[in-house]
Write a structure and sequence with these properties.
It is a single chain. The chain has 16 helices and 15 strands. The protein has 551 residues and is an alpha/beta fold. It has a domain at 1-123 and 451-519: 3-Layer(aba) Sandwich (Rossmann fold). The strands form 3 sheets. It has a 6-stranded antiparallel beta sheet with strand order 2-1-4-5-6-7, covered by helices on one side. The chain has a 6-stranded mixed beta sheet with strand order 8-12-13-3-14-15. A hairpin with a 2-residue loop joins strand 6 (102-106) and strand 7.
Length: 551
């Protein structure tokens, strides 16, 4: 419930505070006094966008702040999702800066406009005279029926529709992927076959490159090994090992007589053993070196193939080629299995569609009951509002497809006169009739919605006399279960309010401003009488005002 509203530097309002009661509040004033400015300011708190055009003083920021009692409205989840502390006492604040930047706060926590919009839709229903046009909107009509008795069925259908839509979209993505894969499959298969036929082995390239170097220099390697072996041990005078053996023999003869010779003999013997081993390996290596033109050609061809594959695929190792080959294999297996996945997805879509049809059937049945309820209960209200011959009927027909709101199309059929033909309300109802019809609908919804506050902005357009009294009576009745605020020009409606706020204009030193004043009992009589006659009101108008307020 809206408790207080504070406005600074907004349009004609310099600064004002309004306190709202729990029941029926009427807001009156001359045309242009600024009544609808209040709704514009309140709209800022409900998530509407604004610019610096609302700033009366371009050098100061605009501030709009309201306090709400939100206990029992089930809003905790909205606050949790937005990471905002919840309290039964909610304070919303909106600031429009001269720089055109906007800031919003909920309980002193900065919030986004989306949060205000979500929250606002659960706090206040603002109904203007132009909203009667929504009676022609199919979505509004369906949501009205759902509110009257099909909310659970509508929610169940919405969940079924969401599941079906998701699965159907996934199926479309799979079939699109399949079509793309089919175009690429031959090329992918060619690439895989080429790599698979290469029988790639990790580290193969390094091994082959070493062998290639060996084969290319086989003769020089063999000659070098032989020369080194000959330098160590052959029949020439310069060979190392024969000379070392001579030295060993000489030391052997004197080792028994000379201790130092024995140590040197030991060291020389170790050297001989090592050099004999080196010589043996040189001879073995020289013998192992063999040159084969055929093998060299094989190695060159194999390396050329590896280099070609690496260049073709933009990699520089055999390991990368192996990774690519395995990836291609996985993609090809995925393509092969896609048919089965599509088949399974189609089965899931069919099952979801069957569930959707079932949910739609339940929703249609429930809406049909709501149609009868609306048709039956709205007529007494229309009769009360001065249309005793009015007839109203709701027609539900199936649509060609299943949409987000169901499988139904709804028409509101109306005729205000005896003997006329029921036709779509948008085609036959006048502005005043539409206003009364919307008021009747709103009054029916009072007991079926959790919205704590409804604001009527000149919904009394096109009505007068006894009808005005009936409108006021209905608003007063609505206020028994919710907070009702009515911006009105009609004294018959203002007289029924429990609280009365007057909006008026005054000239300050520098500009014209709008001001608000809550009227006491005596002031209310004068204001209602003024609305009935003139300013100042006549004695007869004052008496009539008292009578209206006592009804």
């Amino acid at each position: 419930m809206l408790q207080t509203l504070h406005i600074e530097n907004y349009a004609l309002i310099r600064e004002t505070d309004i306190r709202f009661g729990t029941g029926f509040t009427a807001i009156t004033g001359e045309t242009g006094a600024g009544k609808s400015i209040l709704l514009g300011a309140l709209g800022l708190l409900l998530g509407q966008r604004a610019d610096t055009a609302v700033l009366a003083d371009k050098g100061r920021k605009c501030i709009v702040e309201a306090q709400f009692d939100v206990a029992g409205l089930g809003l905790e989840g909205i606050f949790t999702e937005a990471d905002v502390d919840y309290d039964d006492r909610l304070i919303l604040r909106r600031e429009i800066l001269p720089s055109a930047k906007s800031r919003a706060f909920a309980n002193d926590t900065p919030v986004q406009l989306a949060f205000l919009k979500t929250l606002g839709s659960r706090l206040v229903d603002i109904h203007s005279q132009h909203q009667t046009l929504t009676l022609a909107d199919s979505h509004f009509r369906l949501s009205l029926l759902d509110t009257l008795g099909a909310q659970k069925a509508s929610q169940a259908y919405g969940e079924a529709y969401g599941t079906y839509s998701t699965l159907k979209r996934q199926l479309e993505e799979l079939t699109t992927t399949e079509a793309q894969n089919r175009k690429e499959q031959d090329y992918l298969q060619f690439q895989y076959d080429e790599l698979a036929a290469a029988h790639l082995v990790a580290d193969e390239q390094e091994t082959l490159e070493q062998e290639q170097q060996l084969l290319a220099h086989a003769e020089a390697i063999r000659e070098g090994l032989a020369t080194a072996s000959a330098a160590l041990d052959d029949d020439s005078e310069g060979a190392v090992l024969p000379r070392l053996r001579q030295a060993k023999a000489a030391l052997t003869h004197i080792a028994a007589y000379h201790p130092a010779a024995e140590e040197l003999l030991s060291r020389l013997d170790t050297t001989l053993i090592e050099l004999d081993d080196v010589n043996g390996e040189l001879q073995h290596a020289a013998t192992a070196i063999s040159y084969s033109p055929e093998r060299q050609q094989q190695v060159d061809d194999r390396l050329a193939m590896l280099y070609r594959l690496e260049k073709k695929h933009g990699v520089d190792t055999v390991e990368a080629l192996i990774t690519l080959r395995d990836s291609l294999d996985e993609r090809l297996q995925g393509i092969a299995s896609l048919d089965e996945r599509i088949k399974e997805q189609m089965e899931a879509v069919d099952a979801a569609f069957a569930a959707l049809q079932s949910a739609a059937a339940v929703l249609t049945k429930t809406r049909d009951k709501a149609c009868k309820l609306l048709s039956k209960n709205i007529l007494p209200i229309l009769h009360e509002l001065g249309m005793p011959e009015a007839r109203f009927s709701v027609e539900l027909t199936p649509t060609a497809t299943y949409g987000a709101t169901g499988h139904d199309a709804v028409r509101f059929l109306f005729d205000a006169n005896r003997g006329g033909t029921l036709r779509d309300v948008a085609d036959v109802a006048s502005g005043g009739e539409l206003s009364r019809l919307m008021l009747a609908i709103k009054s029916m919804l009072t007991s079926r919605t959790l919205l704590p506050t409804v604001i009527f902005d000149e919904i009394d357009s096109g009505v007068s006399g006894d009808i005005s009294v009936a409108v006021g009576r209905i608003m007063s009745r609505m206020a028994e279960t919710m907070q009702v605020v009515a911006i009105t020009h009609l004294p018959q409606i203002a007289a029924r309010a429990a609280q009365h706020v007057k909006v008026y204009k005054e000239n300050d030193a520098d500009r014209t401003v709008s001001r608000l004043r809550e009227l006491d009992a005596d002031s209310r009589v004068v204001e209602v009488a003024t609305m009935l006659s003139s300013d100042p009101p006549t004695a007869a108008a004052l008496q009539t005002a008292k009578e209206l307020m006592s009804l």
